[in-house]
Amino acid sequence: MKLEYQVRAFEQAFEQYDGVLPLHRFLFTYFKQHKQMGSSDRRWTTRYLYSYFRLGKALKKEESLLRLAVADFLCNQTESMVISHYLPQLSDQLLLPVQAKIALVKDAYPDFNLEDVFPFTAALSEGIVKGDFLQSFFIQPDLFLRVKEDQQQSFLDLLAKEEVEVKVISNKTLALPNGSKLEKLLPDNKYYQVQDLSSQRTGEYFLPKPYEYWWDCCAASGGKSLLLHDIEPKVQLLVSDVRENSLHNLDERFQAAGIRKYQKKVLDLLQNNEQDLHDYAFDGIILDAPCSGSGTWGRTPEMLYHFEEHKIDFFSGLQKNIGTRVVKYLKPGKALIYITCSVFKKENEEVIEHLLATQALKLESMQSIRGYNDKADTMFIARLIKE
Ligand SMILES: C[S@@+](CC[C@H](N)C(=O)[O-])C[C@H]1O[C@@H](n2cnc3c(N)ncnc32)[C@H](O)[C@@H]1O
User: Fold this and answer.
1) Is the ipTM here above 0.90?
2) Domain SAM-dependent MTase RsmB/NOP-type, which positions (predicted)?
């Protein structure tokens, strides 16, 4: 395939993408509508788009195809026509570590500034190391599985047979290359869940006891509930979300995991839910809040390009509002677990400050769960106790 053809295919897809849908969903529909594109065309268009977005707003003054070449060089260890054409002097340096590649790009283009990749560093939460975090955008995150301990060996055997490069993170966690086709590799999903490493680590803060009654109030398709249940199978559970559809997915995942006893409600936590909840009192509430998702943009780099800063305030307001409304359903002495997959202080520490100032809560602990050095997401968690 000629360079001009690859470039045109990239440009056409780029022009049509407005950042509203996640890029992978847009591409799924786009390729369906452009049936003339063969598998190689689709692969290159996908690679170029993801590389391009990983550059965020860096080198904004340069021609877009040069920017694409720089991005593709930083993100990949294999050759491409764009790199060979626009950056022939760097095309034998593809195997260098990202840090060294960044230094080469800076030498060639002194205007290159890593902070332009993610132009919101002033808004970061405590403890996030700027340089490491920014650099991580050029490395594709892994696909993490949480597996039943006694099944791990059989999974490893299956993956070895298919020659999948798998890393054992712990006796419960495996890391696979992103894009691994799990439906084909591990079709029986009863004994594992796809769950990011940092998301798995949030479970260390839950500390449930047998027969306690917990509420996962933004449950979506149940990632945190499944984790909670894995930690303490005797926990009683209410799951809720404003989106009924995602609770259907939850039902399917619970069924696959063999969980049958749980309560479920569709609730909008921005409304008064007294009618549904008036006699409820929980031993634990997990509030995995709607957020900017900025700790997961290594997986959705299109956000580096399309995110609008004013949305941080929108999410912060939503989180404070929801947090304030759920506390009344917590028993005294029990824990509210506040989680986001955001790296922004306004969605993290600032929400906790607000809750401490307005509710009868005390802070037990809070921290960012930094995943950027482990090819994982970065999350935030706080454990608050009702007084
Ligand atoms: C970060 S996701 C939850 C992810 C889930 N806990 C997991 O582990 O997979 C946040 C969820 O909050 C829900 N949400 C957003 N606004 C809400 C509202 N006003 N009331 C209730 N849930 C809401 C969204 O539908 C979304 O499913």
Assistant:
1) yes
2) 120-387
